[in-house]
Amino acid sequence: MAFARLLAAVGLVTCTMASRALAADPDALWHIVHDQCAPAMVSKHSPAPCDAVDLAGGFAVLKDLHGATQLLLIPTDRITGIEAPQIVAPRAKNYWQDAWGARQIFQIRAMGPVPREDLALAINSKYGRSQNQLHIHIDCVRADVRQTLNANERQIGPSWSAFNFDLAGHRYRARRLQSADLGSNDPFKLLAEDPQARADMGRETLVVIGASFRDGKPGFVLLSDHADPLWGDVGHGEDLLDPMCKLLAKR
Which residues lie across from 209 on neighbouring strands? Predict the structure, then answer.
Protein backbone atom coordinates (compact mmCIF):
# COMPACT_ATOMS: atom_id res chain seq x y z
CA MET A 1 0.00 0.00 0.00
CA ALA A 2 2.84 2.39 0.86
CA PHE A 3 4.48 1.69 -2.50
CA ALA A 4 1.15 2.25 -4.29
CA ARG A 5 0.71 5.57 -2.50
CA LEU A 6 4.26 6.55 -3.48
CA LEU A 7 3.52 5.75 -7.15
CA ALA A 8 0.32 7.76 -6.98
CA ALA A 9 2.15 10.69 -5.43
CA VAL A 10 4.88 10.55 -8.07
CA GLY A 11 2.23 10.41 -10.80
CA LEU A 12 0.43 13.39 -9.31
CA VAL A 13 3.64 15.42 -9.11
CA THR A 14 4.54 14.46 -12.70
CA CYS A 15 1.12 15.48 -14.03
CA THR A 16 1.24 18.71 -12.03
CA MET A 17 4.67 19.56 -13.42
CA ALA A 18 3.51 18.71 -16.94
CA SER A 19 0.39 20.83 -16.51
CA ARG A 20 2.50 23.78 -15.36
CA ALA A 21 4.83 23.30 -18.31
CA LEU A 22 1.90 23.42 -20.73
CA ALA A 23 0.49 26.49 -19.03
CA ALA A 24 3.87 28.21 -19.11
CA ASP A 25 4.58 27.43 -22.77
CA PRO A 26 1.71 28.08 -25.21
CA ASP A 27 3.72 26.24 -27.88
CA ALA A 28 4.22 23.07 -25.84
CA LEU A 29 1.81 20.96 -27.91
CA TRP A 30 3.45 22.11 -31.12
CA HIS A 31 6.89 21.15 -29.83
CA ILE A 32 5.67 17.71 -28.74
CA VAL A 33 4.18 16.93 -32.15
CA HIS A 34 6.71 18.72 -34.36
CA ASP A 35 9.90 18.00 -32.41
CA GLN A 36 9.12 14.57 -30.93
CA CYS A 37 6.21 12.59 -32.38
CA ALA A 38 6.63 13.34 -36.09
CA PRO A 39 10.44 12.82 -36.12
CA ALA A 40 10.07 9.59 -34.14
CA MET A 41 7.57 8.32 -36.67
CA VAL A 42 10.04 9.02 -39.49
CA SER A 43 13.15 7.63 -37.81
CA LYS A 44 11.75 4.86 -35.59
CA HIS A 45 8.31 4.13 -37.06
CA SER A 46 6.96 4.86 -33.60
CA PRO A 47 4.61 7.73 -32.71
CA ALA A 48 5.77 8.02 -29.08
CA PRO A 49 5.12 10.07 -27.05
CA CYS A 50 1.95 10.40 -29.17
CA ASP A 51 -0.55 7.58 -29.49
CA ALA A 52 -0.59 7.88 -33.27
CA VAL A 53 0.96 9.94 -36.06
CA ASP A 54 -0.41 9.99 -39.60
CA LEU A 55 2.19 11.86 -41.62
CA ALA A 56 0.25 11.52 -44.87
CA GLY A 57 -2.94 12.64 -43.17
CA GLY A 58 -1.18 15.49 -41.41
CA PHE A 59 -2.21 14.85 -37.83
CA ALA A 60 -1.16 13.29 -34.55
CA VAL A 61 -3.17 11.91 -31.63
CA LEU A 62 -1.82 12.65 -28.16
CA LYS A 63 -3.07 11.64 -24.73
CA ASP A 64 -4.18 14.74 -22.85
CA LEU A 65 -2.99 15.33 -19.29
CA HIS A 66 -6.60 15.33 -18.07
CA GLY A 67 -8.50 12.16 -17.28
CA ALA A 68 -7.83 8.56 -18.18
CA THR A 69 -9.11 8.69 -21.74
CA GLN A 70 -9.08 12.24 -23.13
CA LEU A 71 -7.15 12.55 -26.39
CA LEU A 72 -6.07 15.49 -28.52
CA LEU A 73 -6.13 15.56 -32.33
CA ILE A 74 -3.30 17.90 -33.38
CA PRO A 75 -2.29 18.88 -36.94
CA THR A 76 1.32 18.29 -37.89
CA ASP A 77 1.19 21.62 -39.76
CA ARG A 78 1.49 24.86 -37.85
CA ILE A 79 -2.10 26.07 -37.28
CA THR A 80 -2.77 28.37 -34.35
CA GLY A 81 -6.41 27.57 -33.63
CA ILE A 82 -10.03 28.09 -34.60
CA GLU A 83 -9.25 31.58 -35.93
CA ALA A 84 -6.73 30.31 -38.51
CA PRO A 85 -8.02 31.18 -42.01
CA GLN A 86 -6.66 28.00 -43.60
CA ILE A 87 -9.16 25.79 -41.74
CA VAL A 88 -12.08 27.24 -43.73
CA ALA A 89 -10.25 27.46 -47.06
CA PRO A 90 -11.98 25.69 -49.98
CA ARG A 91 -9.68 22.66 -49.86
CA ALA A 92 -9.09 22.67 -46.13
CA LYS A 93 -8.56 19.34 -44.43
CA ASN A 94 -11.42 18.15 -42.22
CA TYR A 95 -9.62 17.58 -38.92
CA TRP A 96 -12.94 16.80 -37.25
CA GLN A 97 -13.30 13.65 -39.32
CA ASP A 98 -9.81 12.60 -38.21
CA ALA A 99 -10.78 13.31 -34.61
CA TRP A 100 -13.92 11.21 -34.97
CA GLY A 101 -11.82 8.44 -36.51
CA ALA A 102 -9.54 8.53 -33.45
CA ARG A 103 -12.40 7.05 -31.41
CA GLN A 104 -10.79 3.69 -32.10
CA ILE A 105 -7.79 4.80 -30.03
CA PHE A 106 -10.18 6.26 -27.47
CA GLN A 107 -11.96 2.92 -27.10
CA ILE A 108 -8.65 1.17 -26.45
CA ARG A 109 -8.05 3.55 -23.56
CA ALA A 110 -11.66 3.14 -22.43
CA MET A 111 -11.15 -0.64 -22.53
CA GLY A 112 -14.32 -1.31 -24.46
CA PRO A 113 -16.82 -0.06 -27.03
CA VAL A 114 -18.06 3.50 -26.61
CA PRO A 115 -21.54 4.35 -27.95
CA ARG A 116 -21.39 7.19 -30.46
CA GLU A 117 -23.76 9.28 -28.34
CA ASP A 118 -21.29 9.16 -25.44
CA LEU A 119 -18.40 10.64 -27.42
CA ALA A 120 -17.74 14.35 -27.93
CA LEU A 121 -15.18 16.50 -29.73
CA ALA A 122 -14.46 20.07 -28.73
CA ILE A 123 -12.26 23.03 -29.57
CA ASN A 124 -12.01 26.11 -27.38
CA SER A 125 -11.96 29.72 -28.52
CA LYS A 126 -8.70 31.65 -28.54
CA TYR A 127 -9.81 33.15 -25.21
CA GLY A 128 -10.45 29.74 -23.63
CA ARG A 129 -7.30 27.86 -24.60
CA SER A 130 -3.79 27.63 -23.21
CA GLN A 131 -2.07 26.42 -26.39
CA ASN A 132 -1.46 28.15 -29.71
CA GLN A 133 -1.58 25.00 -31.80
CA LEU A 134 -4.95 23.81 -33.01
CA HIS A 135 -6.12 20.81 -31.03
CA ILE A 136 -9.47 19.05 -30.83
CA HIS A 137 -10.35 17.41 -27.52
CA ILE A 138 -11.79 13.88 -27.72
CA ASP A 139 -13.60 12.56 -24.66
CA CYS A 140 -16.90 11.49 -23.14
CA VAL A 141 -19.72 13.98 -23.12
CA ARG A 142 -21.01 15.02 -19.70
CA ALA A 143 -23.97 12.93 -18.57
CA ASP A 144 -26.10 15.99 -17.81
CA VAL A 145 -25.33 17.45 -21.25
CA ARG A 146 -26.33 14.19 -22.93
CA GLN A 147 -29.55 14.05 -20.91
CA THR A 148 -30.44 17.67 -21.76
CA LEU A 149 -29.77 17.18 -25.47
CA ASN A 150 -31.91 14.04 -25.53
CA ALA A 151 -34.76 15.84 -23.80
CA ASN A 152 -34.61 18.74 -26.26
CA GLU A 153 -33.86 16.87 -29.47
CA ARG A 154 -36.86 18.41 -31.23
CA GLN A 155 -35.27 21.85 -30.88
CA ILE A 156 -32.23 20.78 -32.88
CA GLY A 157 -32.80 21.39 -36.57
CA PRO A 158 -30.66 21.34 -39.73
CA SER A 159 -29.59 25.00 -39.33
CA TRP A 160 -28.09 26.96 -36.45
CA SER A 161 -30.58 28.06 -33.80
CA ALA A 162 -30.19 29.23 -30.20
CA PHE A 163 -31.23 27.03 -27.29
CA ASN A 164 -33.54 28.50 -24.65
CA PHE A 165 -31.61 26.69 -21.92
CA ASP A 166 -28.01 26.53 -20.71
CA LEU A 167 -25.39 23.84 -21.02
CA ALA A 168 -22.68 24.03 -18.33
CA GLY A 169 -23.84 27.55 -17.52
CA HIS A 170 -23.73 28.93 -21.07
CA ARG A 171 -26.24 29.41 -23.84
CA TYR A 172 -25.27 27.50 -26.98
CA ARG A 173 -26.55 27.39 -30.52
CA ALA A 174 -27.11 24.01 -32.10
CA ARG A 175 -27.69 22.26 -35.40
CA ARG A 176 -28.25 18.66 -36.40
CA LEU A 177 -26.11 16.74 -38.84
CA GLN A 178 -27.52 13.42 -40.01
CA SER A 179 -24.60 11.23 -41.11
CA ALA A 180 -22.77 8.22 -39.71
CA ASP A 181 -19.43 9.98 -40.23
CA LEU A 182 -18.46 13.58 -40.71
CA GLY A 183 -16.86 12.86 -44.07
CA SER A 184 -16.96 16.06 -46.12
CA ASN A 185 -19.10 17.82 -43.50
CA ASP A 186 -16.50 20.03 -41.86
CA PRO A 187 -17.87 21.62 -38.65
CA PHE A 188 -15.48 24.58 -39.06
CA LYS A 189 -17.03 25.40 -42.43
CA LEU A 190 -20.56 24.74 -41.19
CA LEU A 191 -19.94 27.22 -38.38
CA ALA A 192 -18.41 29.76 -40.77
CA GLU A 193 -21.63 29.74 -42.82
CA ASP A 194 -22.93 32.08 -40.11
CA PRO A 195 -21.67 35.59 -41.02
CA GLN A 196 -21.26 36.61 -37.36
CA ALA A 197 -19.14 33.56 -36.58
CA ARG A 198 -17.05 33.90 -39.73
CA ALA A 199 -16.36 37.57 -38.96
CA ASP A 200 -14.59 36.63 -35.72
CA MET A 201 -13.92 32.88 -35.60
CA GLY A 202 -11.43 33.37 -32.76
CA ARG A 203 -14.35 34.02 -30.41
CA GLU A 204 -16.07 30.75 -31.31
CA THR A 205 -15.98 27.49 -29.41
CA LEU A 206 -17.30 24.43 -31.19
CA VAL A 207 -18.45 21.06 -29.85
CA VAL A 208 -19.46 18.02 -31.90
CA ILE A 209 -21.34 15.25 -30.09
CA GLY A 210 -22.24 11.88 -31.56
CA ALA A 211 -25.95 11.17 -31.67
CA SER A 212 -28.45 8.41 -32.33
CA PHE A 213 -31.65 10.25 -33.14
CA ARG A 214 -35.16 9.09 -32.30
CA ASP A 215 -35.80 8.13 -35.91
CA GLY A 216 -33.03 5.55 -35.52
CA LYS A 217 -30.56 7.35 -37.76
CA PRO A 218 -27.01 8.18 -36.63
CA GLY A 219 -25.67 11.69 -36.69
CA PHE A 220 -24.13 14.52 -34.73
CA VAL A 221 -25.20 17.52 -32.69
CA LEU A 222 -23.05 20.59 -33.34
CA LEU A 223 -22.89 23.23 -30.61
CA SER A 224 -21.33 26.69 -30.79
CA ASP A 225 -20.88 29.55 -28.36
CA HIS A 226 -19.57 33.05 -29.05
CA ALA A 227 -17.10 34.05 -26.34
CA ASP A 228 -17.64 37.25 -24.39
CA PRO A 229 -14.69 37.48 -21.97
CA LEU A 230 -15.96 40.72 -20.40
CA TRP A 231 -18.97 38.76 -19.13
CA GLY A 232 -17.00 35.71 -18.07
CA ASP A 233 -17.67 33.57 -21.14
CA VAL A 234 -14.30 32.60 -22.60
CA GLY A 235 -15.72 30.10 -25.09
CA HIS A 236 -14.59 26.93 -23.34
CA GLY A 237 -16.58 24.18 -25.06
CA GLU A 238 -14.35 21.66 -23.35
CA ASP A 239 -16.60 22.21 -20.30
CA LEU A 240 -19.17 19.95 -21.97
CA LEU A 241 -16.75 17.02 -21.81
CA ASP A 242 -16.31 14.70 -18.85
CA PRO A 243 -12.71 13.56 -18.20
CA MET A 244 -14.09 11.12 -15.61
CA CYS A 245 -16.27 9.44 -18.28
CA LYS A 246 -19.16 8.78 -15.90
CA LEU A 247 -21.32 7.59 -18.79
CA LEU A 248 -18.96 4.69 -19.39
CA ALA A 249 -19.14 3.70 -15.73
CA LYS A 250 -22.89 3.15 -16.21
CA ARG A 251 -22.45 0.65 -19.04
Answer: 120, 221
Side-chain half-sphere exposure of 247, counting CA atoms within 13 A = 23
pLDDT for the residue numbered 249: 79
Q: What is the pLDDT of residues 64-96, one digit of tens each?
A: 998 889 999 999 999 999 999 999 999 999 999
pLDDT tens-digit readout, 31-46:
999 999 999 999 999 9
Taking a C-beta distance cutoff of 8 angstroms, is the pair 96, 207 a contact?
A: no
User: pTM of this prediction?
Assistant: 0.89
User: Is residue 6 helix, strand or coil?
Assistant: helix
Coil, strand or helix: which one is 2? helix
Buried b / exposed e over 193-221, threshold 16 CB at 10 Å, is: ebeebeeebebbbbbbbbbebeeeeebbb
Q: Which residues contact 226 (CB under 8 A, 6 or more apart)?
A: 196, 197, 200, 203, 204, 235
Q: Which residues pair with 211 in a beta bridge?
A: 219
